[in-house]
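Record type: ASSEMBLY
Status: queued
Input:
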Amino acid sequence: MGYLTDSLRALGTTLRNMRRPATTIPFPQQIREREERFRTSFALLHDENGEELCVACLACERICPSEVIKMKVAPKRESPFSGKRRGYLEDFTLDLTACIYCELCVQVCPTDAIVMTRVPEVPGFDREDLVLTMDKLYANEHAKPLTWATASKLNEMQEPPKVAKVEPAKTEPAKTEPAKSAPAKTEPAAAEPAKPAAVAEAVAQEAP
Amino acid sequence: MATAANSPTESRYRLDQVDADADLMVLNFGPQHPSTHGVFRIKLILDGEIVIRAIPYAGYLHRGVEKLLEKLTYAQGVPIVDKNDYVSPMSNEQALVMAFEKLLKVEVPRRARYLRLIFSELQRIASHLLWLGTFALDMGGALGGGSTVFMYCFRDREGILDLFEAVTGGRFHYNTHTIGGNRHDIPLGWDKRVLAYLDMLEPRIAECESMTTNNSIFVARTQGIGLIDKDLAQGLGLSGPLLRASGVDHDLRRDAPYHAYDEVPVRVMVEQAGDCQARALVRVREMRESIRLVREALAGLPEGGINSGKIIKMPQQFKAQSGQVYAAIETPRGELGTFVIAGGGDKGTAPYRLKIRAPSLHALSALPWILPGHTISDVVVVLGSLDPIMGEVDR
Ligand code: SF4
Ligand code: SF4
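Status: finished
Output:
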């Protein structure tokens, strides 16, 4: 019955869509800007003195659900900068072939030593390219853009607020933590749309 | 048009009723077939072009997820289930953490519950969009080349993945839920982006509707096909859009509210016909309803913390008493439940046994009932209308 008219109507939709801006981009020549929190590969960081931040505490190795982090711990020795005795890494490998990018290793690090990078492409020509050795991880610190997330930022974001607000009329069953549930009547303070660069700061401020 | 049989044994196309000299043929549909939406095999016994019997075989994508979750601790389990129903990872995480939270008796802050609702509804839109696209693709040439609607749906779904990327950093494997709340709060201005996206999406859904559910070719190919009546649907334990398309008014979001669904009530979409068209209509209407829910939840999003202080620091941090819990949520595909038996004692940091109740597995169990009597080309349509995700079926 209406096959012809419906087909024509569908054709009309197609024509309308042809006038819309293209959603794809010519990929290798042009690379899409990723969000501030986008996470792929990894990097190990140094502090401002150029000393390794990682204290070889094994926390990331233990939390990793895929067991892809393997490290060798060097004997503890005094830091030439702070003079404190601390752990050092002897070797560290992270096997990207089995990593599920869960970000748990980043979250548990006590010294913000391990972070993820923001490059969308991590392929290699052979399997070795996907095994991140300690040298590669330290090189990534400056070679690749880093994501927003570090252990302290993630923890700060998840930390329950210290001061409890006065409970509004609509009470809820008792909670393990004070319910700070004043319903947001007004729009959240953010007025401008999130620009990737602004997100990191914005979130840091937002977390109480 | 052939009507569906009520059971394989009552089928009017029963093997013993087929002429003795009929030239029966066995056709293996899948496991490597684009229309099976994954690795799934149906053994079809055919009389000419008519299906006489269908025997589904699942298990090609078995990864031992349940066993893996018994080995990992409660703190480590969440990122693993992202990979089950890879079209709606958020829902998987939520079903698992809700069971763990029940077991460990952890409360979730109100803001986190609202955020979970928003994520789960956005995920429902994304999942239904992908379903609509692939369903149109299954119909092939009937719909202006088939891949037209597919491309439009994928384009619009991208927007949701971008929104999730902005919050969690991942496009599929979010790991954003954790026991006692969420791991990521929304960035500043995210709500504005969501609202702008929804405003863009609403007319696009109408556009897709005009090419699918309102299109007479689509209607001709789906009406009366793959009939599941009320009794069969309930008897097989179907859930979600499949059950609602068969006239059963059941939705966990309304009937057993979790997250913040008690504060943001859901209107449940029900259709009576029980055929492929009814299932398509239910899903398209659910997308509209989800848009409304997200808008409402964003408007009422409370301030406050997103985690009740159970920040993950080490794998053994959660210890459960021995006991059993079951928690279920309404995913885009239906009731996704997690049943956990906790061992307690020294083994208290990991589940003793964990079982996932996947809605897609139940959906596929309807195939032997509804396929007989249909032609081969309808097999693809019926299978597509069930919206099975093999990662969830085989686990
Ligand atoms: S992201 Fe997850 S899987 Fe990958 S190394 Fe870190 S903890 Fe392991
Ligand atoms: S958690 Fe951080 S400090 Fe500890 S071993 Fe891993 S990278 Fe090093």
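Annotation: Chain A touches chain B through 68 residues (CB under 8 Å).
Annotation: The helical segments of chain A are 3-18, 59-63, 104-108, 134-143, 151-158, 196-206.
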